[in-house]
Amino acid sequence: MAATGRLSASCIGHFVAVFCLFTLPGCAGRQLVNDAVAAVNEEFRKGYEEALATSGTRTFRTNTQSGIAALRSCLTGMGMHVVDEDAEAGYLRTSGPAPSPLDTQDWQKAVRIDQPRFRKILADHVGLLAYLVGLEPEGLDVIINGTAVQKPSGVELSLTMRTAETKPPPSGMPRRQYPPPSAVRIGLDKIWKCVDQHISSSARSIP
After folding, report:
1. Considering only CA atoms, which of 96, 196, 107, 127 is closest in space to residue 155?
2. CATH of residue 18
3. Between 156 and 203, whose confidence is greater?
4. Which of 13-17's residues contact partners 24+ apart within 8 Å by CB, and which partners?
5. Confidence label for 177 from pLDDT (cuts 50, 70 and 90)
6. Full domain range(s) for residue 130
7. Closest of 127, 65, 70, 113 to residue 90, by C-alpha
8. CA distance 1 to 140
């Protein structure tokens, strides 16, 4: 019952925010909202690209097919499903409902880190109404593409993460194009840890 109450209060807050933003005299207009979302997108884009630059690629002592197999096993175990795969070419495309591959605890950690900055950027454009809107995973699919390139030292695995809308967000706010930077970093670290364990386990099982 308490959880239902919190959810209802959150939904009411979202409704009030959007109603004010788009309709009430004196509230921020649609252009301000669009500017606010554009500013969030730019900030999240920078964080996303930084995360990929530092954590988006790892090299493992295995071959292309085993690297893709490890990625597939880890990602499907985290709630993703395979959309397309070519192990010989070193390619894997997966999709899953946000916040996959993060679990609830992972997502809450990312929200604690990224939501204050998210709201601050919005507030620069729409004022205190920004604090009635939170980061929303609902209605989004996460798309993760993985590639494997054979190198002399092993196979180089690379990942990218993007989001695709499946239904409008509860708040009614325009969608951002990039996932929260901390969610990307947490997701990448989680995937690489799993891949490392999978490859190490497979190597130990070979006589």
Report:
1. 196
2. 3.30.530.50
3. 156
4. 13/132, 14/132, 14/133, 14/170, 14/171, 14/172, 15/172, 16/132, 17/129, 17/132, 17/133, 17/171, 17/173
5. confident
6. 2-205
7. 65
8. 27
